[in-house]
Amino acid sequence: QVQLVESGGGLVQAGGSLRLSCVVSGRTISTIAMGWFRQASGKEREFVGAIMRTGGTTFNPDSAKGRFTISRDISMDTVYLQMNSLEPEDTAVYYCAAGRAGYVARQAMGSTMTYEFWGQGTQVTVSS
Known about the structure:
The protein is mainly beta. It has one helix at 61-64; strands at 3-7, 10-13, 18-25, 34-39, 46-51, 57-59, 68-73, 78-83, 92-99, 115-118, 122-127.
């Protein structure tokens, strides 16, 4: 059984930083794409970024704006989302997601359909 557990969310002032973690069990993260999404209250789930099997990353420029990075520790099956220069507009529940087995094109990383398993989410609140 595949499980994803996010942590690291919380309350931070604008301009601050947070690092979210996603621990994966039941699957080796080096074999799948891992994505980060967020959902603000009353809005649709939005793609933030992803790390592919190769270790390459891709981001939604509208949400990340060059402020976010994604990394992974394969030995711990953990994926990280480092968020800097946070803005109140970044307030949302952040989810990590595990992609389906096999090759996934970069251009498909932003689709929720690419991902098979999801974490429970972690709340990020940025105060002004």
